[in-house]
Amino acid sequence: MSDKLNLAVIIGSTREGRWAPAPAKWIAGVAEQHGGFDVDLIDLLDADLPQHLVEDDMWSTEADPSAPVAALSERLHRADAFVVVSGEYNMSIPASLKHAIDYYMNEWAAKPVGMVTYGGKITGGQNAAQHLRQIFPELRTMTIRNTIAFPRFYQHFDDRGEFTKFGETESAAKTLLDELHWWALALANARKATPLPNPF
């Protein structure tokens, strides 16, 4: 049995032509090399959540959730930490990501999340990161300090179509993962020692 922590890397965009899978696979690869994580790469396009939030699917109600909701719930529950990969759409996060966040509550609680963002502007998707910093505390999820941003990502491809900034960002990724691992271990131990109080 592995003594590593479980890390879920979430591809937050489902838009046609999205770039999100590339940085998600990159950070997942760095996390696998880190040595402290077992990595689960979650693509929200494959998750295929129902379009409409319904009461039976939300917040661990007693009713049985639909199969897609239950499947993603199991993967989120298993995670000790998250890395969310998000583009910046109209100064915020993709609707698909907010939709997935809103489907669940206990799955996110008392766990840390790191963010990898990208965008067509110089901010590199940091408006999306700031919105996630407002959203996740409501679910009792801790956003860590460090983030990774890829500004104007479309300008950084070589003649073979390979993105050129991953290599020079690997050191920052390791720093992010070190911090994420520290918080994930601390919160995993806290969850085992004392159940998180009901906020209601």
From TrEMBL:
InterPro entries registered for this protein in UniProt: Flavoprotein-like_sf, FMN_Rdtase-like_dom, NAD(P)H-dep_reductase
Q: Name one Pfam family in it.
A: FMN_red
Q: Does the keyword Membrane apply?
A: no
Which intervals hold domain NADPH-dependent FMN reductase-like? 6-153
Q: Which GO terms describe its molecular function?
A: oxidoreductase activity
Q: What are its E.C. numbers?
A: 1.-.-.-
Q: Which UniProt keywords apply?
A: Oxidoreductase
Q: What class of enzyme is it?
A: oxidoreductase
Domain of life (superkingdom): Bacteria
Q: Does the keyword Oxidoreductase apply?
A: yes
Query: What PANTHER family does the annotation carry?
Result: CHROMATE REDUCTASE (PTHR30543), NAD(P)H-DEPENDENT FMN REDUCTASE LOT6 (PTHR30543:SF21)
The protein in question is named NAD(P)H-dependent oxidoreductase
Q: What is the lineage of its organism?
A: Bacteria, Bacillati, Actinomycetota, Actinomycetes, Glycomycetales
